[in-house]
Task: structure prediction
Amino acid sequence: MALNADSKNPVLVVVQLTGGNDFMNTIVPYSSGVYHDSRPTVRVSEDEIIPIDNELGFYSKAAPLKDLYDQGKMAIVQGVGYPDSNRSHFRGMDIVHTCEPDAVGTEGWVAKAVRSLDPSKKNVLTCVNIGRGLPRAMAAPGVTVTSVGNLDKYGLMTGLNEQSQRQRAIDLFEKTYVPVMTEGHEGVVMDYLAQTGRDVLEGADRLSSVPAGYSSAREYPDTAIGQSLRDIARIHLANMGTRIFYASHGGYDYHSNQVPTHAKLMNELSMAISTFMDDLGDHGAREEVVILVFTEFGRRIKDNGSGTDHGSGGGSYIIGDRVKGGLYADYPSLDPNHWEDGEDLAHTIDFRGVYATVLEQWLSIEAVPIVGGKFEQIHPFN
Result:
């Protein structure tokens, strides 16, 4: 039974921090001499720390997230990773999108969740991505996901009234995805793509009325993630039956110039999430929504003189009114004797266990076939 089955269906909002968020400079081990010695250039100074306890604190640029934490609405999952973490952006993101660290996966974990939520494909808006393209996590044969770059402009697709124009749009969609066709199955693939193209147009038709029906006293930040979460709020409040939303916040690959970049990104992310939660609260729609924030890997323990390089042992965040806030899993050891490969934070919980937690405990979906096995879960829900 879903945790909020007595009201509305549970909704999951997935926020991807693209590039490798620096967990150590987000949830900062400010009392550790190893932390300060390892990061002479990029360390967060003590006057920029909002303490959680005597050891850890939020970076001050993420103050709105600390407010949610203090309200008991934010779970911090420490030390998220997997064995032999891959430091390549492409491969690392592919792994966390497909839950396949030992092979190239063909189906995304979100897409498989959508298949469980809507096996009959009754709603083309069961899953909506806000952004250009389609994240690998949302791609799987036979699973329809609607991707919206700009909600206000997306509805204009309904101007394709003439069948010939609509067919040209479908043809273009097919040509875009021709490279994914499997030899010997071109007809099946083309039929699928044609159907997907028609689903995209149906999604445009249904979403065309969303902007006009939305009003809010909240002013979202004029940032990409701010506007993405605003679009998610608009669609959710329009009761389109969407169960999973996906948005991305890019720019976290800070090999250089990290200090100002990290400050900017943390401010953007925390302000956007805080405004989104306030907006849903104003509309009486907070309780059914949970946010999962993740990234593909962490950063190295030592800085490189200007930034930090790809590492492991990152973090995830689960946010919502039904969340039991606090620290989950263990913060990776800063003892050099316990560093992964002599330079990284060792993971203390597998990312697939974090996915399994929200799949089973929030969305009431069996997680094993989605994440590829049984993994330790946390228990962050009331």
Observations:
- The CA atoms of residues 64 and 271 lie 6 Å apart.
- The chain has one domain: 11-371.
- The first strand starts at residue 11 and ends at 18.
- The radius of gyration is 21 Å.
